[in-house]
Amino acid sequence: MIIIYNGGTKGRTMRTALKFLGAVVAAVVTAGALGLAASGVLAASGEVNLYTDRQEVFLRAVLVAFEEESGVAVNVLFVKKGLLERMRAEGEESPADVVMAADVGRLRDFAAAGLTAPVDDAALLAAVPPEYRDGDGYWFGITRRARAIFTGANGGAKTYDDLASPQMKGGVCMRSGLHSYNIALISDMIARKGKDGARAWLEGVKQNLARTPQGNDRAQIRGVLNGECRAGVANSYYYFQMLKGDLRGELLANVEMVVPLRANVNVTGSALAARAPNRENALLLMRFLAGEKAQNIYASENFEFPVNLSAEYPPELERYRGVLLRASPAGNSGRYRKEASRLVEEIGFDR
Ligand SMILES: [Fe+2]
Questions:
Q1: What are phi and psi of 244, to 5 degrees?
Q2: 235: CA distance to ligand 1 center in Å?
Q3: pLDDT tens digits, residue range 310-322?
Q4: Same domain, residue pair 6 and 139
Q5: 3-state secondary structure of 312
């Protein structure tokens, strides 16, 4: 596996200083020259080029398993910010085969920019339930995270509506409404309640805030733990990550993670690049990512929920399997992002 970093990630051992398209193309060609079966400049049969904003630490085990099973070498271009702009600038020369992004909204952006192509593939359609893929085949979910509610002993919030109810006055903690995780949640609320309903909900939540929106997702969970908040909102995997650390005992005793009915769920997903030079290998990789083996690795290493219903769940995640069957469709997270941002600004949620 060859990994090229171009996103300002610090301290990576395999980081290179490659900054331009030419360098990326050169690296891919070099991969061929090194014996990875490149048989033309970019149309090599034995490799696949993955463009992603997903950190390598989350991908490595899955991609190594793919290489072992398929014999196809994976070249990864990791760009934390500006992946879409980069691919657009590369135009017809882009070596990208598969795009992987950690947000439905961003996957939609790639499709809208004409950078990804629809896929009609029986194996993918069978592996990924309709709620976690695009209806036209432009993206397929790999893992899910729920926007969960965290409550303390006297919390009481079990649903998103509870967060806006008068009983929660002075008790709710949330990060900035403009963060992409909350934009996805508000987009979902617009999808299910309409704009007016979502506005009333968000105003209700604002009325109930324990403090000005601040901090990251973990800070909301810590706020519940230290009693500053009766309920906080954060992505599910952060809780499981925190359970691996010093706070495990305290968290288990004092903080409950609630995945509400019709939970807001966002996905990391894959998409086929519109001009994929290694199209068949791209489909092999996409099928592998949606398959049980990859999903099991993901779930056990990253604590994200699999999308494949046949995948195993680690014990910590198992109890949420049932409620997640009744989650909101992932597409709702990306559908009304503009309207959601406007709503946050208009009601001054962060002030
Ligand atoms: Fe995150």
A1: -80, -10
A2: 7
A3: 898 888 899 999 9
A4: yes
A5: coil
pTM of the model: 0.85
Ligand 1 centroid from CA 176, angstroms: 14
Interval between CA 214 and ligand 1 midpoint (Å): 15
**How remote is the CA of residue 123 from the centroid of ligand 1, in Å?**
29
Residue 160 counted as domain residue: yes
Write out pLDDT tens, residues 134-160.
Answer: 999 999 999 999 999 999 977 779 999
Q: Are residues 230 and 303 in the same domain?
A: no
The CA 41 to ligand 1 mean position distance, Å, reads 37
Q: Is the pLDDT of residue 112 over 90?
A: yes
List C-alpha distances in Å: 163 to 8, 168, 333, 345, 349. Answer: 37, 6, 19, 19, 14
How far does the centroid of ligand 1 lie from the alpha carbon of residue 337, in Å?
18
Residues 135 and 198 both lie in one domain = no
Report the relative pairing of strands 172-173 and 140-151 from DSSP bridges: unpaired
Q: What is the pLDDT of residue 182?
A: 98
Same domain for 180 and 71: no
- What's the confidence (pLDDT) of residue 45? 55
Ligand 1 centroid–CA 38 distance in Å is 36
Same domain, 216 and 235: yes
DSSP string covering 30-81: HHHHTTS---SSS--TTEEEEEESS-HHHHHHHHHHHHHHH--EEEEEE-SS
Q: How far is the CA of 277 from the centre of ligand 1 (A)?
A: 31
Confidence check: pLDDT of 334 > 70 = yes
pLDDT in tens, 57-69: 778 999 999 999 9
CA of 36 to the centre of ligand 1 (A): 34
Q: How far is the CA of 278 from the centre of ligand 1 (A)?
A: 30
CA of residue 178 to ligand 1 center, whole Å? 14
Look up the CATH number of the domain holding residue 184.
3.40.190.10
Question: Which residue segment(s) compose the domain that 72 sits in?
Answer: 2-144+266-313
Rounded CA gap, 238 and 8, in Å? 23
Please indicate, yes or no, if residue 183 is contained in any of the structural domains.
Answer: yes
Does one domain contain both 234 and 252?
A: yes
